[in-house]
From TrEMBL:
Cellular component GO terms held in the UniProt record: transferase complex
One Pfam assignment: WD40
Span of the signal peptide: none
Keyword list, A-Z: Repeat, WD repeat
Gene3D superfamilies: YVTN repeat-like/Quinoprotein amine dehydrogenase
Highest taxon of source: Eukaryota
Native organism: Reticulomyxa filosa
Protein name: WD-40 repeat protein
Amino acid sequence: MERRYFTSIMKSKEEEIQIIIHHWIRTLNIKLGWIKDFDKFVVDYASTVFMFNTFRSSSKLINIFTGHTKAVWSIDYSTFDDRQFICSGSSDKTVRVWDVDNNKQIQSFNRHSSD
């Protein structure tokens, strides 16, 4: 009985987090991406990219990636050689690459075009 109760609590916590995330997406028109085993998520809003821990007693802001001067319209997550990266594209015509483990920007590609 205890195991079922614990599973039910964990499921309801995960559902609560999903509801909050979906609310953010609808009301703030943000984009998001999951990192690793869904233990972190990344959102972009305005010209800033945020990374949060999830599935804990409360979500914790891990890092704020700043550098774009205009709205961030695209965000993606990738791995390469056991390293994790976030790529963000902005109306400022830059694509920025962030190292997730070091929480630093490692590359900026300037003057990209959507054409």
